[in-house]
Amino acid sequence: MGKNYQNITDVPGIAVGHSEDRQACTGCTAILFDRETVCGVDVRGSAPGTRETDLLDPLNLVDHVHAICLAGGSAYGLDAAGGIMKFLEEKGIGLNVGAGVVPIVPAAVLFDLPVGDASVRPDGKMGYEAASLAKRGDLPWGNSGAGCGATVGKVAGLHWAMKGGIGSSSRLLPGGLVIGAVVAVNAVGEVRDPIEGSVLAGARDDQGKIVNSLDLMVNQATIPLLPGTNTTIGVVASNAKLTKSQAAKVASMAHNGLARTIFPVHTMMDGDTIFAAATQEVDASVDLVGTFAAEVMTEAVVAAIKQAQGIDGFPAFRDLVKK
Predict the structure, then answer these.
(1) Neighbouring-strand partners of residue 50
(2) Could you give the CA distance from residue 244 to residue 104 in angstroms, rounded to a whole number?
(3) According to the model, what pLDDT value does residue 323 have?
(4) Cα–Cα distance between 76 and 213 in angstroms, integer?
(5) What is the pLDDT of residues 197-249, one digit of tens each?
(6) CB 203 within 8 A of CB 213
(7) Which of 50, 84, 175, 264 gets the highest tally of CB atoms within 10 A of its CB?
(8) pLDDT averaged over the chain?
């Protein structure tokens, strides 16, 4: 249903920029809005790393956001949002507080410290660069931005994991409604193609063959999952007219896209977080927006895995396909 587009920037008013350190295997992604944009959030993981999510509560004052930051680096990576704020302040963009403007930039981070150089994390400089590179249209995905150090399939330990990444998708529906998603996939479990039922990436055995993550969990039932290893963070956006509470509901429904593709998901050791942004142009029901938000989130997760490139010690989906 509807026409498949390429990425979240097909939603009017949205630009995306990446910045990463490929040697250190970490990065950040800036999602910028050029018009008044309402935002909600749903945090399902029990070990999240987030910023400004309380602000998005429908009970609280500020209605609009100016950007969203997705980053690696665990809690250290939240510093990248400050760089995006600096970029927007220089443009005069933000909440007018009389003495100047305060850009509202919610953020979420994933745990990529064991991959690459743990001493290098997304910071203000990287966030500023990502914001300055934000554009519409064709964008690099896979190992770009917040997906640079993402990995999946860590049920048996990081040594047997595969490369995760960042992906995007969008859909044009009748009436001019456009819904898009961007997601950085860094899961402890495996990622499956919900249409074909095949495992795209997950834990590997000694021969490099993917093994069933759920079977591994059963066989080592008394061994806890590794802290911080299952964090998938993303944004769904539309040009719908939504309130903050409606946007929060869309974010909640968009998590269904993660549940369709990632096994396990929303565990005690993860920080799964989805923001939902609405640029206030088209009348649409919350149920319609939320249903297709889950659809494009599903597609974005699959795209993240299929577009990822292997790095030292972490083969990607495309590497196994070649074999």
Answers:
(1) 108
(2) 14
(3) 59
(4) 29
(5) 899 999 998 888 888 888 877 776 555 666 556 789 999 999 999 999 999 99
(6) yes
(7) 84
(8) 92
The 10s digit of each residue's pLDDT in 149-197 is 999 998 888 889 999 999 999 999 999 999 999 999 999 889 999 999 8
Q: What phi, psi does 282 have (nearest 5°)?
A: -120, 135
Tokens representing 143?
A: 């190992």
Phi, psi of 104, deg, nearest 5: -100, 110
Alpha carbon distance 291, 278 (integer Å): 15
Asked if residue 123 has pLDDT above 90, the reply is yes
CB burial class (10 A; 0-12, 13-18, 19+) of residue 283?
exposed
- Domains along the sequence of the chain with CATH: 3-322 (3.60.70.12)
**Token digits for 228?**
């911080």
φ/ψ region of 293 (left if φ > 0, alpha if ψ in -120 to 50, else beta) reads alpha
Closest CA to 201 of 162, 233, 229, 173: 162
Q: In Å, how far from its chain's centre is CA 90?
A: 26
Q: Take residue 264 and report the two structure tokens written for it.
A: 């396990």
The residue count of the chain comes to 323
Q: Which among 316, 319, 14, 321 has a CA at the least distance from the CA of 148?
A: 316
The predicted structure's pLDDT at residue 12: 96
Q: Which residue has the tokens 């309402």?
A: 38
Q: What would the 3-class secondary structure string for the chain be? A: CCEEECCHHHCCCEEEEEEEECCCCEEEEEEEEEEEEEEEEEECCCCCCEECCHHHCCCCCCCEEEEEEEECCHHHHHHHHHHHHHHHHHCCCCEECCCCEECCCCEEECCCCCCCCCCCCCCHHHHHHHHHCCECCCCCCECCHHHCCCEECCCCCHHHCEECEEEEEEEEECCCEEEEEEEEECCCCEEECCCCCCEEECCECCCCCECCHHHHHHHCCCCCCCCCCECCEEEEEEEECCCHHHHHHHHHHHHHHHHCCEECCCCCCECCEEEEEEEEEECCCHHHHHHHHHHHHHHHHHHHHHHCCCECCECCHHHHHHC
